[in-house]
Design brief:
CATH class of the largest domain: Alpha Beta
Distance between the termini: 52 Å
Radius of gyration: 24 Å
CATH topology of the largest domain: Rossmann fold
Structural class: alpha/beta
Largest sheet: 6 strands, mixed
Order of helices and strands: HEHEHHEHEHEHEHEHEHHEHHEHEHEEHE
Number of strands: 14
Number of helices: 16
Bound molecules: pyridoxal-5'-phosphate
Strand order of the largest sheet: 1-2-10-7-8-9
Number of domains: 3
Length: 400
């Protein structure tokens, strides 16, 4: 099933006045990683917080009156759910959405606020898809697949079309990949521009695409373990896979560490709140790997993040960036010993975040205690300086 620039143009006409034409922002911090200009396509600022409204609306607007009357059903960890719910409200269609039991609360709440009926079921998007299919068969509702449909691919492709208009000299577009709908849409939009590379990015803990592309057919991922819930998809979609395979689109993988550091960098340096999936493109640049041709555009595909998860990811990102130092220090069990240790730490300029006291341990002498300390630092070099200072002062220090 082919999707090309004309299909994307038709979707863009449908989406006029529905989806926001999101801005592209140049980022010096991200450009420095790529060694040339990099612009950020801010779909985190899209309506309902991600690009998903584009595909969902395009697909649903084309349903017949009779299909619309039967209602729609979808399966999603959150962003497609919100896209379908918002599109359904705009089109006056009833929507039922199956979401995994662990779905982020704000995503569930937003989906319900748009008026969709939410059913929490199973532990993954793939479980929810099975439930949504069964619901469609039972009730006659139309299944709005999150990525495996030409209309959805064409709708997502409008992101690529806007990039061409906003950055005509773009040489590389970097796209987060789950089922592949967004990346396939971008490839479709750029079909007449062979001078532009498309690079896909998946989380290493949920990466079905690299093995599937190598094999020439979709192969389910062996595991789905990543903080990037939006791109944790078990099996590539047949429609997007066909497009990405035919165009030889390379798909890279990124670690959890790079995902959290990317999110932190975007918040701190670009002042943009992006969810882990949305930060995958920047994570790929942080990870190094083969250079990309610039000007490059990185699609920040979504910004919906549970504040609790944000807290955890920021901590993870700070630790990955060497901004936290966790260590255990042996001191004599005598009055003033802890104060002396804290005095040495103060002298290094490290900010003590947490102190724990272990008095009983099989390898502790009876006149010793172990102090677990968490210190906020200015980065990896400062961490090394803090450790060296304590060791020079005679302390027995273990990192971690
Ligand atoms: C924020 C975000 N980025 C990327 C993707 C991946 O999109 P696709 O499944 O079309 O590859 C998703 C999918 O839900 C998402 O929510």
């Amino acid at each position: 099933m082919r999707v090309g620039p004309a299909d994307v143009a038709a979707a863009a006409a449908l989406l006029d006045g529905v989806a926001t034409r999101t801005p592209v922002e140049e980022s010096r911090a991200v450009s420095a990683l790529a060694g040339g200009p990099v612009l950020l396509k801010c779909e985190n600022l899209q309506r309902a917080g991600s690009f998903k409204i584009r595909g969902a609306y395009t697909r649903m607007a084309r349903l017949s009156a009779e299909e619309k009357a039967r209602g729609v059903v979808a399966a999603s960890a959150g962003n497609h759910a919100q896209g379908v719910a918002l599109a359904a409200r705009m089109l006056g269609v009833h929507a039922t959405v199956f979401m995994p039991q662990g779905a982020a609360l704000p995503k569930v709440a937003a989906t319900e606020e748009y008026g969709a009926e939410v059913v929490l079921e199973g532990s993954s998007v793939d479980d929810c898809l099975a439930s949504a299919r069964a619901h469609a068969e039972r009730t006659g509702a139309v299944l709005i697949h999150p990525f495996d449909h030409p209309d959805v691919v064409a709708g997502q492709g409008t992101v690529g079309r806007e990039i061409l208009e906003q950055v005509p000299d773009v040489r590389t577009v970097i796209v987060p990949v789950g089922g592949g709908g967004l990346a396939a849409g971008v490839v479709a939009a750029l079909a007449d521009r062979p001078d532009v590379d498309v690079v896909g990015v998946q989380a290493a803990g949920a990466a079905a695409y690299p093995t599937s592309l190598a094999a020439g057919h979709p192969i389910p991922a062996a595991r789905l373990r990543t903080m990037a819930d939006g791109i944790a998809v078990g099996r590539p979609g047949d429609v997007p896979f066909g497009i990405l395979h035919e165009r030889h689109v390379p798909v890279r993988t990124v670690s959890e560490e790079h995902l959290s550091r990317a999110l932190l960098l975007l918040a701190e340096r670009a002042k943009l709140l992006v969810e882990p999936s949305g930060a995958a493109g920047v994570a790929a640049l942080l990870a190094g790997g083969p250079p990309v041709r610039t000007p490059a555009v990185v699609i920040l595909s979504g910004g919906n993040i549970d504040p609790i998860v944000l807290l955890r990811v920021v901590r993870h990102g700070l630790a990955s960036a060497g901004r936290y130092l966790q260590m255990r220090v042996r001191i004599d069990d005598e009055p003033g010993a802890l104060a002396a240790l804290l005095g040495e730490l103060a002298a290094t300029g490290g900010n003590v975040m947490h102190v724990g006291h272990v008095r009983t341990g099989v390898d502790l002498a009876i006149d010793e205690v172990e102090i677990g300390v968490q210190v906020e630092t200015r980065g990896p070099r400062h961490c090394t300086a803090v450790l060296e200072h304590l060791r020079a002062a005679g302390y027995r220090v273990t990192e971690g």
